[in-house]
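Q: A reviewer asked whether we had any structural model of the full assembly, not just the individual parts. We don't, so I'm hoping you can provide one. Inputs are below.
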Amino acid sequence: MPGNLPQDGLAAVVKRDCPTCVMAAPVLGELARRGALAVYTQDDPFFPETVSGPIDDTALDVSHRLKIEIVPTLIRFEAGREVGRTYGWDRGEWERLSGIAGLGRDLPDARPGCGAKNVEPGVIERLRVRFNETGLKSRRIMIGDGEDEHEAMFARGWSDGLPLVPPTEERVLRMLDGTSRDPQEVLGLVPPDLAAATVEKIAVNAVMAGCKPEYLPVVLAAVEAVLEEQFAMHGVLATTMFVGPVAVVNGPIRRRIGMNAKGNALGQGNRANAAIGRALQLVIRNIGGGRPQEVDRATLGNPGKYTYCFAEDEEGSSWEPLSVERGAKQGQSAVTVFAGFGLQGVVDQKSRDPESLARSFASSLKAIHSVKLAPACDAMLVVCPEHHRTFRQAGWSRARLSEELHRLCEIPGEELVAGAKGIAEGGAPSLAGTTVNKFRPGGLLIVRAGGDAGMFSGIIGGWSAGGARGSLPVTKEVRN
Amino acid sequence: MTVLLDPTSERSPTIRPRLSRPESLDGLTVGILDIAKARGDVFLHRLGERLSERGIAIKHYAKPTNTRVAPLPLRQQIAAEVNLVIEGLSD
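A: Here is a predicted structure for the entire assembly that you could use as a starting point for your response.
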């Protein structure tokens, strides 16, 4: 029981900023004159002037311990225990609690109160930290007063090379408000260290990446997806090839959190796109211990290993969302992860029929990794709206385009033999006389994104160990 | 004092350990840094001779004054050129 509270009598919590508290101030004065009343004031230590010696609770300690949510709150204590409480101004309730009739005759019968300061966003987290009520399990790292916290984070190796948002207890608590999941729930083991990815640890990294709390469910789904066995995150990390996880978001959460599926969707400038992809990478780095030139053996890597996340442009599309094609429910938000790298542009400003455009796409697709390698890898084709229009007008579904592209990606084996075209790279002489497809069946994902203007689609190449031998794309529904 | 939550799996200590000393100097380049304390140059020069006699590559550096930290270009040069540094800290 907080100190200074009456053993027997009334306690009121008020603030000057609340018109109902100001209105009820004369009643508080009357109650103070007629019996035991302690008035705690949240903002102005001199309010209300109708009471001699209101108690300064600008630190909000008493308010927090009494779990005040609304001001004014009137509480009755008997033998040191709370026996009744009312919120706002309600004459009947105030008379019942105080045992005094005829209170505030010139006031309306009732008026709702205002939100208490101790539960304001930003304040409640500080109080929970001060009262050691966070439940957070992560080790605390003390940064000295003379130390620059940003430099301290770099020095500890937490950064991908760019500045981080310091993961204070308050920020992590706010981040965890973005999900209803238990902070200690383990989503999986993060390679290469196979360390447990708790919701809390992911939230710490999401804070550092610059996420808002409402992005957290997407980050959690993306982490769950890359930790699925078939995604082979350890291999995606450890390979000398270019790849990292590419995350594509579908469903209503895209618009709720303001993701970009339109112009420059794969580029910079959108906080949700950037921070979600970055959080995923920081989870691999910090929880999993996956760092470049250590277990991450990439020869070149690619800029998408800072962050590679975008939303599919579902609005105005004649195709069902990628997530639905992959088994998620229509209208359900979901994340699909793909082990990919970079972007190879496909420029075609002249094709006006789907056959020509498909041939154009296929010609570019056949160049991934090397014109001499097939099957090479999985790939993600990002179709821009102006190219999509050609398929829509011709009634081509995503499945139809996928089938046509697969057919067009058949390559005569002669072209793939080592030494053919004057290139030593290639396969065995026995390929001659055969036909080889550039992709395994189902190895081509198709999404729609981009600005309304421009006949510029893109290809995100995959990992040579694509397919069941390596990394398979994974789709996970977003849970709140 | 700022308190941050550890984003890692907490498998390493919060205080970064010093780099371990090499087991051998074979194949390494040793920097010898004279911090400009009196007669430090004499001691370090002799040390350099002894290391050279053992076939170890040596590079000499000098701070302008012992009263200030080494200038950034000098620190960067040393970090880029040698594997470890020996310096004489006192008179």
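A: Points you may want to mention in the reply: The longest strand of chain B covers residues 29-34. Chain B touches chain A at residues 1-11, 14, 16 (CB under 8 Å).
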